[in-house]
Amino acid sequence: xxxxxxxxxxxxxxxxxxxxxxxxxxxxxxxxxxxxxxxxxxxxxxxxxxxxxxxxxxxxxxxxxxxxxxxxxxxxxxxxxxxxxxxxxxxxxxxxxxxxxxxxxxxxxxxxxxxxxxxxxxxxxxxxxxxxxxxxxxxxxxxxxxxxxxxxxxxxxxxxxxxxxxxxxxxxxxxxxxxxxxxxxxxxxxxxxxxxxxxxxxxxxxxxxxxxxxxxxxxxxxxxxxxxxxxxxxxxxxxxxxxxxxxxxxxxxxxxxxxxxxxxxxxxxxxxxxxxxxxxxxxxxxxxxxxxxxxxxxxxxxxxxxxxxxxxxxxxxxxxxxxxxxxxxxxxxxxxxxxxxxxxxxxxxxxxxxxxxxxxxxxxxxxx
Amino acid sequence: xxxxxxxxxxxxxxxxxxxxxxxxxxxxxxxxxxxxxxxxxxxxxxxxxxxxxxxxxxxxxxxxxxxxxxxxxxxxxxxxxxxxxxxxxxxxxxxxxxxxxxxxxxxxxxxxxxxxxxxxxxxxxxxxxxxxxxxxxxxxxxxxxxxxxxxxxxxxxxxxxxxxxxxxxxxxxxxxxxxxxxxxxxxxxxxxxxxxxxxxxxxxxxxxxxxxxxxxxxxxxxxxxxxxxxxxxxxxxx
Lengths: 368, 238
Fold this sequence. Notes:
The structure holds 2 protein chains of 2 kinds. By secondary structure, chain A is of the alpha+beta class. Chain A contains 10 helices and 14 strands. Chain A has 2 domains: 2-27 and 232-366, no CATH class; 39-224, no CATH class. Chain A has helices at residues 2-36, 110-116, 137-142, 179-186, 206-216, 226-268, 270-278, 283-320, 331-357, 361-366, and strands at residues 40-44, 51-53, 56-58, 68-69, 85-98, 101-108, 122-124, 132-135, 150-153, 156-164, 174-178, 191-192, 194-199, 220-224. In chain A, strands 1, 5, 6, 7, 8, 9, 10, 11, 13 and 14 form a 10-stranded mixed sheet that branches. Chain A has a two-stranded antiparallel ribbon with strand order 2-3. Chain A has a two-stranded antiparallel ribbon with strand order 4-12. In chain A, 38% of the residues are buried. Chain B is an alpha/beta fold. Chain B has a single domain (3-237), classed as Rossmann fold. In chain B, the strands form 2 sheets. In chain B, strands 1-11-10-4-9-8-7 form a 7-stranded mixed sheet, sandwiched between helices.
């Protein structure tokens, strides 16, 4: 019976470990996506304007466009679901001429922007002062610029402190600088061209957030980046499918183990069953004994498996996810694991129990 | 002197006995050949008797005891218990009959090794619907009756052979069955302990317990009121 408990413990612990790790991984992915990737973009409502950044169509370069007032940006955090808002990254966009060529300038709050675009990789050190620049790899190549070079934009000189490694996106061909400095160069003081927002959307419908921000900024067009949400969902679903697949396999192997052990136990206990029958136990009583044992074994295996599985998940998570944290005890999973363990044990013991109950007492007593 | 008990029982057909064994026969199939474990046996047992069934190993006496206990369906004949043909009952009804009317003392004690003495004794009561407290009280009383009140919490392998036999007797009588079947109860005991056990069985018999004991030991038969000799699958009465 110890081996049976051990077998169930291993089975249930494996399932609990897998599902706990999956849950923690899902949360981690969600957190990362939520915290570091913008999943809502707000741009001004405009027509016939062609400026593109990050797949979002923006107001044009050479025309006067509608912009947001910078001082209104904090209003985003006054929506009902404000607790679900992470980073809010305003940007000013506009074109200027450098060495006779037009180039797109993007003014950002570096501290927020670098958290939001945590996948950016660059040479040099990120800009810390208002006169420092981060330039795209294509911009650097086009203007033959390198780190430490000075670049005149408008009436001010800027120092290039870092060059973005190729991203394959719009950033490659732009110049990124301080929001307020670029507002001045572009003549857009106190104006913001677009806002990228990272929302924590584990428990909230993103469409609700989009609607609430839209209500606060009727002049803006608020869009959820469907791609990020879809990618997030796909990753989570993939992990879940994998875990469920393993769980089914473990349940199958576990059932087989319980079945074989219980059959062995019934065979070994022929003598005992003979005694039970001889002292007046009915077939039903013998079945009850075997199934009761199976239930107790299932309960013990389930409890130990749940505790052990969570322990293993807690210990293994740092190895699986860098800086990952344990999602905590999931009592629903605990209930399911316990039920599963007991049900598995009972179902796999049904045939052995039936076999035991059908033992002819005289046959069983021959073993005496 | 020996008499064929078939004739005896034929004479006593009008008298109602506690148990009547009528023309019982048991065949076993061994490969293609049929072995007659019991050719034909007929005898009776009255209420309150202490009867020994004596015979050599393989004579069919243990088979007879298992048939008497409703555990082994005979090939021929019938067993009447208080006029009830027990092999006309379903196997579940016979289980109920054993629980209520028959206590069995097995050869080599046959205690459940992982249960304490008290739990072993309580085992037959587990299916009676008695309350746990009542079961406990009855088991302790019967353990006191066989002189093991202070060893209730021991495991069987912590007891001597004689003590284990007493536990087996306690388990057999705890439900107060009218009939007690004992299979070689002194078979694995030294002569002093065997005498003590026989004294205990006699004591139970003197209190009205009907006992049927199977033995190969003529000494044990001296303690019984009647001996049925079994030889080559047939029986004779002393």
